[in-house]
Amino acid sequence: MIRSLPTPLPIALTTTLALLGGCTGVLEDGPAGSAGSDGPGTGGGGSKGDNLDPDSGMPIDEEPEGPFTHAWYTDIGPILIKNCGSCHQPNGSGPFAMTYELAKAWAPLIKSTTAERTMPPMPVNNDGTCQSFDNARWLTDAEIQAIGEWVDEGAPHGPVTDLASFPADLSLSDPNLTVKMPTAYTPAGNVSDDYRCFPVTPNIANDVFLTSYEVVPQSRRIAHHMILYMVPTNDQSWVTTEDAKSATPGYPCFGTIGSPNGDAAQPVAVWAPGGGRIDFPEGTGVRIPKGRMLVIQMHYNLAQGPDTDLTAVKMKVTNSVAHEAFFFPLADTTFKAPPQMELFKTTPNGASDLLSITDGSFNMLAPMTVYGVFPHMH
Q: Average of pLDDT values for 137-159?
């Protein structure tokens, strides 16, 4: 984070976006059923284990013989629920809920993905050698070792005690403005990914500044991410026409809002699974002009089957702020790869682990303070 300069200046909240095609949202090496069969992944995180295929993971009907170094109820469950439970909970976005029965069925994969640090997802290195970050989804080396030892011992549950509840997304308890999709939407079941734009116009009497928000999807099972855009004024009629032409709610879009000047659409709020309440830095806010149309762009991933969604964005707005904030998307819009390409590989100078290097930029018209970055790519 760059600290504020002594004189009042505009500030920027930057986003990095690389929307390069759909992703499955499924752990490919997991137990059978992770993509919608009768295995542990069915139902987007159902918490019952009575339909598990024992061959897909570890038997759950017997406790291994002790003594144990670790047990689910004493130390492993609290670690996984705290760090993984915001997605891996009943009806959550993860392919299974982090209950004992399902965690044991998926135990070998939990061991390997935590050891590889692919789960919980935290692409930024938080081991302290370069930097450390607040609220990081980052297991300690001791926690990873404990998970591995627990799996090797047969994933015992130990003495049954009460566990902490699944972490809830931080809630915005006092919103004074809410926008939501006009009607519920169910993606077609014959696609893997669906990008859909839903126009909304906030009911405000004057310009306001967004200072906090919370995105509330109805279906966390299919909601992959959301971006709330401000429609350029000269594109509002185009968006209205596209929305009216569609036989189902909203209209198809990809990248931004799909309009002629869509690349200039200003993001207002962004969300991905596991994200909760967002509070902008004190004294800052993103302007929403009176009468300006917004678009809720949803990316739905249907790896676990279709569902119906009615996403809402709860907001805290105020009439003035000390510093007006902006989101600046940083994306290489010239980057192209063939659809469904298995691997986009370049190996300059003999490098063996480099897939691609891409960048984006924008011209700064005045000094700015960067408060945060929201990286996102597929």
A: 95
Is the distance from CB of 339 to CB of 20 less than 8 angstroms?
no
Instruction: Give the Cβ contact number of residue 175 at 10 Å.
Output: 18
Task: Please tell me the chain's helix, strand, coil percentages from 3-state DSSP, rounded to the nearest 5.
Answer: 15, 25, 60
Determine the pLDDT at residue 337.
67
**Residues 131, 59 within the same domain:** yes
Asked if 264 and 237 sit in the same domain, the reply is yes
pTM of the full structure = 0.65
The domain tally of the chain equals 2
Give the angle 314-316-317 at the CA atoms, nearest 5°. 125
Task: Give the model confidence (pLDDT) of 233-255 as tens digits.
Answer: 999 999 999 999 999 999 999 88
In which residue are the tokens 């991410």 written?
A: 225
CA–CA gap between residue 264 and residue 60 (Å, rounded):
53
DSSP track, 114-133: HHTT-SS---S--SSSS---
**Cβ(223)–Cβ(311) under 8 Å?**
yes
Q: Domain for residue 30, yes or no?
A: no
List the beta bridge partners of residue 49: none
Answer for the pair 192, 301: CB distance below 8 angstroms, yes or no.
Answer: yes
Residue 43 confidence (pLDDT) above 50: no
d(CA 136, CA 117): 12
Is the sign of the CA dihedral 148, 86, 271, 278 positive or negative?
A: negative
Verify that 258 and 292 share a domain, yes or no.
yes
Q: Nearest Cα to 79, choosing from 103, 43, 108, 53? A: 103
Is there a single domain that holds both residue 123 and residue 206?
Answer: no
Does residue 242 share a domain with residue 329?
Answer: yes
Query: Where is the domain boundary, 152, 184, 203?
Result: 152
Q: Are 316 and 174 in contact (CB under 8 A)?
A: yes
Q: Please count the other Cβ atoms lying within 10 Å of the Cβ belonging to residue 167.
A: 16
**Rounded distance between C-alpha atoms, residue 196 and residue 356, angstroms:** 28
| 132 and 255 part of one domain | no
**Residue 221 domain boundaries:** 11-19+169-377
Alpha helices (H) along the chain: 77-84, 100-105, 107-115, 141-152, 236-245
